[in-house]
Amino acid sequence: MDAMRTDAATSARMARVRNRDTAAELAVRRELHRRGRRYFVQRAILPGRRRPDIVFPRAKVAVFVDGCFWHSCPQHATRPKTNAAWWAEKLARNVARDRQTDADLEAAGWRVVRVWEHEPATSAADVIEAALGNADGI
Prior knowledge:
This protein is α+β, with helices and mostly antiparallel strands. The protein has a single domain (19-132), classed as Endonuclease, Chain A (3-Layer(aba) Sandwich), CATH 3.40.960. The protein is built from four helices and four strands. The protein has helices at residues 2-15, 23-34, 84-107, 121-132; strands at 40-41, 54-56, 61-66, 111-116. Strand 2 (54-56) and strand 3 form a beta hairpin. Helix 2 crosses helix 4 (121-132). The termini are far apart.
């Protein structure tokens, strides 16, 4: 019975996890906007649910602001102790899907930029602007 309560609690907690408009995404978007860059948010490029967090269609730059836990940041990744094998497999699938998304976008002629949620917004915006070059955002 106790395990069922834990599962329900975990399920409820996971349902509250945001998949867009996270604090890190909003900070990066605000910084890009402050710099005069215009972009689309969560615009579909590939079929399916794999949508970049920030999209610059004219420049063909797709930006992902990856969460340290969900995308296994080499500096900040943590591994849950409860149901450890399931979580290890889940997080490995996330990383594999990220690599496949990168490859699919690159094959379609897009530049992919991935920044970690722990990076300062100004640093992330610098990396994004380097990928954009002199191209107009939208």
